[in-house]
Specification:
The complex is a heterodimer. Chain A is of the alpha/beta class. In chain A, about 45% of the residues lie in helices and about 20% in strands. Chain A has a single domain, classed as Rossmann fold, CATH 3.40.50. A five-stranded parallel β-sheet of chain A has the order 2-1-3-4-5, with helices on both faces. The two termini of chain A are about 25 Å apart. By secondary structure, chain B is of the alpha+beta class. Among the domains of chain B are: about 90 residues, Beta-Lactamase (2-Layer Sandwich); about 170 residues, 2-Layer Sandwich (Beta-Lactamase); about 150 residues, Histidine kinase-like ATPase, C-terminal domain (Heat Shock Protein 90). Chain B is about 50% helix and about 20% strand. Chain B has a six-stranded antiparallel β-sheet with strand order 13-12-11-16-15-14, with helices on both faces. In chain B, strands 2-1-5-4-3 form a five-stranded antiparallel β-sheet, with helices on both faces. In chain B, a hairpin with a 5-residue loop joins strand 8 and strand 9. Classes of the chains: A alpha/beta, B alpha+beta. At the A-B interface, helix 1, helix 5, strand 5 and helix 6 of A face helix 15 and helix 16 of B.
Chain lengths: ~140, ~800
Amino acid sequence: MGNGSQKKVLIVDDEAYIRLLLEQTLEELEERGVDILKADNGEDALRLAREQRPRLIFLDVMIPKINGFEVCRVIKQEYQYEDTMIVILTAKGQEYDRQMGQEAGANFYMSKPFDPDELLELATKVLFTNDPDYYPE
Amino acid sequence: MVFPRFGSRLSNKIVAWSFIPTVIILFLVALTVYVAYQKVTEDLVLKRDEELTRLSASEISASFEEYIDRLTTLTRLPDIYAGAPRNQRLALIGSKNQLVFFDAGVYLMNNLGYVVAALPENPRLLNQDWSNRSFFRTMVRTPALYISNIEPNGPNGEEVIALAVPILGDRGEFRGVAAGMFHLDVNSVSPFYGALIKLRIGRSGNAYLVDSNRRVVFTNFSEQIGEVFTSHPVANQALTGRVGVARTRSLDGRDIVAGYAPIPRTSWTLIVEENWSDLALTSQGYLRFLWILLVLGVLIPTLTMAFGVRRVTRPLMDFTAAAQRIAGGDFTHPITLKTGDEMENLANQFNIMAGQLKESYETLEMRVAQRTEELTALNSVAAVVSRSLDLDQILSDALTKTIEVLHMDAGAVFRFDLDAHQLILVDQQGISPEMLLLIQRLPVEASIIDEVVRTHRPVARLVADYPPGALREVMERDQLKTVVSIPLLNQDSVLGAINVTSRSLIWPSPEQLAVPASIGQQIGVAMDNARLYKQTVVYAQQMEAARQAAEEARAIAEAANAAKSDFLANISHELRTPLVSIFGFTRIVQKRLEERIFPLLPDQDEKLQRATALIQENLQIILDEGQRLMTLINNLLDLEKIEAGKMEWQFQPLPIGNVIRQATTACAALFDGKNLSFIVDIPENLPKVIGDADRIVQVVINLVSNAVKFTPQGSVIVRAQQENREVIVQVIDQGIGLSPSDQALVFEKFRQVGDMLTAKPKGTGLGLAISKEIVEQHGGRIWVESEVGKGSTFSFSIPVVDPGGHEERPKVDGYPEGSLQER
């Protein structure tokens, strides 16, 4: 589980307000000791992912430098045998994007705008369920 | 070489037709003669052989005469025919020397058959009774000479041949028998055999002496003597007692002639056989002569005929050679024949014919050369005409060629100005300046062309025949004598003329005029082509300009369209991003107010209660309106994608019933807080269709949300059923309904029916347009039935793929759904 025993969530989005929105949505988790990391481009996202080994990544697709699918693919290749969960977040609700996400190795797909309750529930379950293979539907 | 072969073939035929029948006839005659000769020879040989056999038989019989004489002389002795037995014995012994050749002895019997005397003396025999012996028995009946067969008559019962004569008294009475006997032995000293041995006939012949019991008395092969003679091919014929002859095959296969004859005074038969080849030997020479004759009969005619045929066919071969030479174009070698017959006559005729051929051949060559020249002119004009669209150049070339072909001195080419009824000079060659002034623009009537225009044919005229006037005067001054005018024709109209003129009195033949006339027609066509080409060039320029304009317009339109698409894609993204924040933060605000702020407020404060209620309501309005904006943006983007053909369709076999049920579940939220009942009527056994599940869900949601929007109270029904090869989905409401004119417009973009000012119904006006596009993309139809104030029924159809395959209960689509459906 990465650096130390602390649970980490990485938020990747180029829009500051969206990052803020996600952070606030996950505020509850911070209170439970989860470390929230943020990146506004693909490079930083990859760097943070390598350094911090977050358990959960919310990944926007259209981000500067390296796009979200590519970030997802690299992470999934590097941490093939670890349990990093990646949620692709995008404004587009197209099947094509879902397929790309699936091929890149993403675990979940969420379209924006999202329901904060639902997002929080997903994160809580991923981070706090004992079963490492938990796979919420 | 060809000729000898032909000659030999001809002579072969002559030989074949005349000589071969002769040979066949000769051969047949020879064969017939040969066969007839063979036959005659055979007859002669057989006859001779028969005669020979008969003579031999007589000879053998005659050879017995001496023995008979001796015996007869003995019986004439008185002691023999009248003496006592003792005397008889003495007399017999006394005659011993005369009877010595009877090697088996001589015996006397009395009239009762008892032996009375024997030579050599043999007391044992005396008084033996021989009355049963054949010769005695025969003698008793007929007292005459008797020669026996081979019989056991010997003194000791051995087989002998007996020669017996009667002993007669003075008065001829029978007193007894005297019998002389011979042994059967070829080596015997008996002169009887010696006589027989002489009978050997020919080199290969055999002789058989056979008694009536068929026993061989004598033959050349001593071992056969005494044996039974039955197996010989002529045995049966020979022993009938007749004289005869037969040609037959011997037992060992030889071709033999067998003659046979009875021996007189005996019961014996003589059989003589000889090889045919030996007998026929004499005729061989004649046969050889016949063959030589036949060969000569074939050879002599062959040689004669071959020589004769050569003599007859040689002139023919010469003829053939001459004809070949002439066929090859060589007229210089006449045929010289001195046969003095019809051949020579024919050769002379042939030579005359060759001469005539030579003449006409030369004429023909001249004409061909002339014609070639004309055609070359025509071709060069045609080549220019087909190459060039420069009319003046064509006309100049045509003028030059026409002058050349007709051997003229000068000429001019005119274009016919139909409106002014004038001829306009285009080009000239060799025309004097004075005349040039006159013909720049020439009235048609003043010229020979007048006639050309009427007849459409080339016309020739003598200058002397021109009507008096300036033109004729100038021409006469220039010493021109003849004018020929060739029309330039295109179909039925005269477009101009080529006039050529000569200082000599040339009168062209119709054939000479044919080439210029043909040139005239080609020029006419070319003139028309040039005119059409000018028009075409102008049209083409206009067309190209129009095409370019259209191309530019299209490029601009395409660019504008692409720009619009890009713009829409970008703007929707840009619009959505802030909306995400608006949504999200509103929800967080809502949540925090509810969870953290409101519980802290004092319950009693009515004003504060109203204010919090208002805040909650306002926040909901922000969410609703945000949702509406989001839907608008999504719809806009979808429609744009569908129309630009960029929509990514996920077609696959779908259980349509499940898909629609799923859509109605998603619609349930639409009814929250509404006074509406939602009825779903979908049978279990709907078939599969090919479709994009998300899009079909989108259509159903669009229709249901529309129905909810326009129905203040009552119910909304979603119904699906199969009709023939389609599944029909209906969304039935009890809302405000549509007027017939609105029904026609309802599926168009940005059309909201009813009075826009009241702004009562909300919507983007894009939902139905998108639904129509989606349904049509599935090969189905969408339509509406409605009555104002009573409600509307929106229906769409999706074609069934497999009429037999009913839907299965479990959902096929296994992809994990995004938790939030944005539509």
